[in-house]
Amino acid sequence: MSANTSPFHRSRPPSQQARPASPTRPRGYLPRWACAVLAACLALAVFAVGPHALKADTSSITGDKDLAKQVISLLPDDYQARGIHVSVITAEGARHAGIGTSASGQQYTSTTPMEIGSITKTFNGQLLADAIARGEVKASDPLSTHLPELAGTPAGEATLEEVASHRSGIPGVPSQDLTWFVLRGDILGLNPFTDSTDQLIEKTRTTKMGKRGEFAYSNLGISLLGEALRRAAGAESWKSYVSERLFTPLGMEHTTLTAGQSEIPDGAIHGVQTNRRRGQSLSGPGSNPAGAGVWSTPEDMTRYAQAVLTDTVPGGAAPQEARWPAEVLAGFQLPGKKIGDTWYTDVVDGHTIISHGGTTMEYMTHLAIDKESGKAVMVYTDQNTDGTAAALAATLLTDGQKIPTARIPMHAEMLLQGMILGIFTILALVVGLYTAARAASAPSRMAVVCRVSALLSCLAAAAASGPWAYVPTWILAAVALPGLYGIVRGITLWPDLPALPRRRVWLGWTQVALTVAFVAVCLVVAWPKA
To answer: Are 130 and 311 spatial neighbours (Cβ–Cβ below 8 Å)?
Structure first.
């Protein structure tokens, strides 16, 4: 009997016929190529709203228009700042020019308060010479003579002259605070100079010292020098001391020292940090002598420069004498190859220039003086990214040509800091790759929400803290692309997903808790601080 005629062969009713198995995972409502295109569009949006190199509005000019045009012609093509102010100073007067407009709409004028940063250190050099002339201190005095709390410590053995020339071995900041400075200042955008004078002295007792006699730039050392001079003079504070001995005699009525954000002078212009965001301004009485929280106007700094040019500044010319070798940043003409008491000296195109620069969380400034030609230049730039201020000051003093570049080169000492600043960018890439790889296998809507929240908050933290002065800003958009694809893909699957995982719900809630903690950390980093 053939199989076809077998009584045991029966065709099954339609309801019992085999049906194609339904897919184990939802397929979504957009093809993958469409998700990729939409993700690319979103990445372009990330690039558009993300960090960008700043450019000054060169049509916005105050003061001397001819000087402004000269400055614009000298600026390098990679110049990155929203605004700049330049003063060309002689003993008889000064020409001032402001270029650009701040984020708040202010223009840069000769009466605008701006941070001067470490140019403040030269005040201490002049005041040291003045105190020596008054018989209050000796250059050979150990620091512990005037700061007895440091007696018996290596820092206390350094002389005032060694401290003033950065040859004391005292580190730039207390060694126990190095990580804190990077985290608070660069990652969080907060003022890292929060210690009082007493706290700085206490930390100096146990700080790790460098080699005494070798040049090593030290904010901590100059802060201690300022306190030693203040005590030797019997002044109530360093603020009252510098005001009585320097500001008042020179008529610097609009130069102020701040101990907190609330004391920033009215009308001050805030700049931006290296990563293109606004952070807190520097402040703190303990580090005022080193330049933290010191605001001045171009007109006040003109008075200071004129006093230096004419040797009428307290302390005279002695602090400016080049006596010891100093460190020069590769690729830059200034600050100098030798140092005196806080003042650097260099020879540029036959011109002997004394100078000092300043870098804060919002500004990069430079004061350069050619006493032989009787001319000085003071430059403010409202960013702390490149060396425009130093290069421009030297060029204006020496009648040089257009500055080819002002970018600070990335050197070995900066690699670790760059890696730390880029941690959220790296995390955003890792989270994004995971989101893209697992987009089609999301167990629930809860998981999709967690992935989206983690990625977006991480991108915000990366935009706020990344090392955008040294790497192209389009990298953030490239890093975001995989994750954005995963987000788009996950959203298309949304209607077919359960609200909660069907299995091991506790794992889902654990993911929520971890995501909330991660998002909180990212928001602390990304949230505006000023």
So the answer is: no
pLDDT per residue, tens digit, the chain (530 aa), is 444 444 434 444 444 444 444 444 445 567 888 999 999 999 999 998 888 777 788 899 999 999 999 999 999 887 878 889 999 999 999 999 999 998 788 999 999 999 999 999 999 999 999 999 999 999 999 999 999 999 999 999 999 999 999 999 999 999 888 888 878 887 888 889 999 999 999 999 999 999 999 999 999 999 999 999 999 999 999 999 999 999 999 999 999 999 988 899 999 988 776 566 677 888 888 999 999 999 999 999 999 999 999 999 999 999 999 999 887 554 444 456 899 999 999 988 888 999 999 988 888 999 999 999 999 999 999 887 777 888 899 999 998 888 877 666 655 556 666 777 789 999 999 999 999 998 888 888 898 899 999 999 999 999 888 888 778 889 999 999 999 999 998 888 888 889 888 888 888 899 999 999 999 999 998 887 76
Structure tokens at 21: 């198995």
**CA–CA separation, 82 and 140 (whole Å):** 45
The number of residues in the chain equals: 530
Q: Answer whether 147's CB lies under 8 Å from 156's CB.
A: yes
In three-state secondary structure terms, 133 is helix
Contacts of 365 (CB under 8 A, 6+ apart): 114, 115, 116, 117, 119, 357, 358, 359, 378, 379, 380, 381, 389
Between vectors from CA 126 to CA 219 and to CA 92, what angle results, nearest 5°? 120
Tell me how far apart the alpha carbons of residues 281 and 66 are, in angstroms, rounded to a whole number. 32
Between CA 522 and CA 95 the distance in angstroms is: 46
Rounded to 10 deg, the angle between the 423-437 and 474-492 helix axes is 30
DSSP 511-527: HHHHHHHHHHHHHHHHS
Distance, C-alpha 82 to centroid of its chain: 15
Give how far Cα 405 sits from Cα of 344, 355, 530, Å.
Answer: 22, 20, 30
Task: Decide: helix, strand or coil at residue 270.
Answer: coil
Q: What is the pTM for the complete model shown?
A: 0.86
DSSP 148-178: GGGTTSHHHHSBHHHHHTT-S---SS-GGGH
Whole-Å CA distances, 476 to 45, 245, 455, 458: 11, 50, 12, 11
Cα dihedral across residues 217, 220, 224, 229: positive or negative: positive
DSSP helix/strand/coil, 357: strand
- Token pair 């700042």 is at which residue? 81
Find, among 277, 190, 191, the residue nearest to 460 by Cα: 277
